[in-house]
Amino acid sequence: MTHNHLSGAAGHSVQAGQIHGGVHLHTTAPAAPLVPHQIPPVPSLVNRRGELARLDEVITQETSAEVPVVVLTGSPGIGTSALGSHFLASRASRFPGGLLYADLAPVEGRRADPVAVAAAFTRALGVPAGALPSDPGDVLGLYRTLTASACGVGVLLDHVTDPEQVSALVPAGAGSVLVATTSTLTPGLIRICTGYLSLPPLDFEASLALVLQVQARGGTQPPAAGSVEAGAELALLRRCHGHPLALILAAARQHLATVTDGPGRCHPAGDDVLARDEDPIADRLRETVESLPKATRSDYLVLGLHPRVPVTAGLMAALLDCPLSAVPRHLELLLALSLLSEEPTTENHGGVFYRFASAQVHADAHARAHHELGPARLAAAQKSIVDWYLAASRRVCAALFPATALPIWPDQPQQPLHVPDALNDPEEALTWLQTRRQVVLAVLRLAENAGMWCEVGLMARAVRAYGLRLKDGAAGVQISRSELRTARRLQNREREIRALIRLGYCLLRTAQFLQARRHAAHAARLARKAGHLREQVSALRLRAHIATKQGAWRVARRRLATAEKLLRHRSTGGVWTLALVHLEQATLALHTGQPARAAELARTAGDLLRAERPQDWHNAGRAELLAAQACHALHDRVRARTHGEQAVALLRTGGAGQELATAYQGLAELEQEAGNRDAAHACYQRALDAYRYTDHAAATRIGLILDNLSDALPSDPAQPSSTKDTPS
Predict the structure, then answer these.
(1) What angle do CA 383, 385, 386 make, to 5 degrees?
(2) CA-based angle 463:464:467, to the nearest 5?
(3) pTM here?
(4) Could you tell me if 696 and 134 are in contact, meaning their C-beta atoms sit under 8 angstroms apart?
(5) Contacts of 389 (CB under 8 A, 6+ apart)
(6) Which residues contact 463 (CB under 8 A, 6 or more apart)?
(7) Most buried of the four, 180, 482, 637, 719, by CB within 10 Å?
(8) What whole-number distance in Å separates Cα of residue 295 and Cα of residue 669?
């Protein structure tokens, strides 16, 4: 280069006064992004040639819509999911941007959130979880932006229940296609789709081909024409009326009946079994379940009590009350009859996930369980589910709060509970909480409905990380309400007051100020009536926090002063609670532009915490973080760095959280001001990792800062960079 160039198109260049020798620039090619392929595999698809041709016609015809939206509809078990999966997977070359899949079937009666699905799709398209925006509209906008630049994306939305789920997830790029499956075609879906296709039952030829495929997997030879077996096969085809799921269930059951002997095994249904024309799947399912041996049928019913998600082998062992090694033997017949399916995983001890073959099979098992299982077996199965999730939640609690005593176990289960080993790691524990949020909350409701109030309280306490670590206000509200109901059932006034205060904090995170204020006032009245000074102070702290959030600085300051006065009049105890009041006062002082006062209060709080509770690393880290922020505001960078490093050390020991991300961000800003770009980049990267679960908006801002810093960092691989460092 002979002159300065600001167009940004010059590429790599060197500007120097004198150059002796050659100049060599070494760059590493960026790794090619992974193209998602989330469509589940379809073992086989018989016939449907006409339907596939119709789909090709719909997505290739000229329409005013930019992206074809095709809706496949039909009765449950007719094969809409299989057809949609096969269609997109077999034409993957037409979608260089990748194939995306989401099962939108309701869980515990709750519809799938399209914003959560869009967030999962953006992560599959290469956006880090920490870089997702916090606003739902921004998440959907980011999804459309990514699909618009992906050169064609195929999207399959399975078991759609609401037109809004489809309209929110339509990709934006030319060459993209969205296929949705549903059992009910509503006017709303017709209005937004490009074309729709109602699947008819299979014809005789296709039905026979499907039955022969199922029998061939079991090693059965096709029956000779005119034989007794061929007659039974024809009777089977007539009873199933061309419904694929009914054909699979009946063929698997007939195959087992012909190759097994002994009492209690499956027997073929004769021609005297009358099938209801309107629901052949229910008939085949009823026949299959009623032919199960007594022990296998009991296992089938027990499994139906679990929420509709994949079940790990360890949880299967707890549900079936058997050793882990005996799980495959218990499930052998259910798998052979296509009532259950299995898929490999590396998460649990057995290396396998189990799930029901369809939502209809799970609904059948769930309904039968409540009618056929005796009260003792039903209670034992429900307790096994709660015990397993309580054990997993305790493991999460130990990973995220190492300084906190674990909740006690009410009754130790007889069998060892095989929970995932990954829950020992804080990062994996947070991931487990996020991915199983709905299941954990469903199990909490199950425990409440079963009257297991002791277990409800212990499990709610163990998964309180939703509120304290993930900052998930909605889940925190449900967990706190469960704690509140438990305290009232057990008539424990002290726990009731604390649950009210925690519920107030969670409501505050969801901007429900009026309800939070009402719960805080109720907690204060109960604490005064019971004479619990510590709970009175906690209620005052909550009310001051609400006032601070609403900008009522004077009200917040007055309430904290009242709390401090109550504690100073107490002759013994209350030192730890006083330290927490000082932390609130320091936060308020920072908000009102009094950094010197904030630094003094933070140091006082830190001294009290070290003297009273040396293992309360989380609050001690908060004190150091506030001191660092105050020193930074006073332009005392040396002390700010010292307090910031101590805050990081303490908060890492106390478990990951939003405060840790804030501490890393403060250190990064100090390094950036000092001109240490490598160190600043490393600290920003650690802040981004910590923000991933707590504050998506902050994570997005940090991601932009990292991009700017990365452009300014040297590209020579010989120079070590700290961007790949991991938190120590």
Answers:
(1) 65
(2) 130
(3) 0.65
(4) yes
(5) 439, 440, 443, 459
(6) 393, 396, 397, 433, 440, 479
(7) 180
(8) 64
Beta bridge mates, 110: 107
Structure tokens at 40: 């589940």
| pLDDT value for 723 | 37
Looking only at the bridges linking them, the beta strands covering 352-356 and 340-344 are antiparallel
Neighbour-count burial for 612-642, b at 16+ CB within 10 Å, e otherwise: eeeebbbbbbbbbbbbbbbbbbeebeeebbe
Show Cβ contacts of residue 29 under 8 Å, excluding neighbours closer than 6 positions: none
Report the distance separating Cα 708 and Cα 484, nearest Å. 47
Is beta strand 177-182 parallel, antiparallel or unpaired with respect to 69-73?
A: parallel
User: CB neighbours of 213 closer than 8 A, spacing ≥ 6?
Assistant: 44, 46
N residues, the chain: 728
pLDDT of residue 278: 46
What contacts 74, CB < 8 A, 6 or more positions away?
A: 80, 183, 198, 199, 200
Please name the residue that has the structure tokens 């006083």: 578
pLDDT of residue 560: 92
The distance between the two most distant Cα atoms of the chain, rounded to a whole number of Å, is 99
Closest C-alpha among 319, 489, 462 to residue 400 = 462
Cα angle: 49, vertex 54, 55; to 5 degrees? 100
User: Taking Cα atoms as reference points, which of 378, 470, 403 lies closest to residue 432?
Assistant: 470
Q: Check residue 646 and give its pLDDT.
A: 93
CA proximity to 115, closest of 193, 192, 168: 168
Secondary structure of 234-248 in HEC code, one letter for each residue = HHHHHHHCCCHHHHH
For residue 65, give the DSSP letter. S
d(CA 519, CA 499): 10
Contacts of 382 (CB under 8 A, 6+ apart): 305, 446, 447, 450, 452
- Give the DSSP H/E element, type plus range, for residue 426: helix 426-435
d(CA 707, CA 175) in angstroms, rounded, equals: 30
> Which amino acid is it at 324?
L
Give how far the C-alpha of residue 150 lies from the chain's centroid of Cα atoms, to the nearest Å. 25
b/e map 440-472, b = 16+ CB within 10 Å: bbbbbebbbebebbbbbbbbbbbbbbbbbbbbb
Output DSSP code: residue 502: H
DSSP 202: P
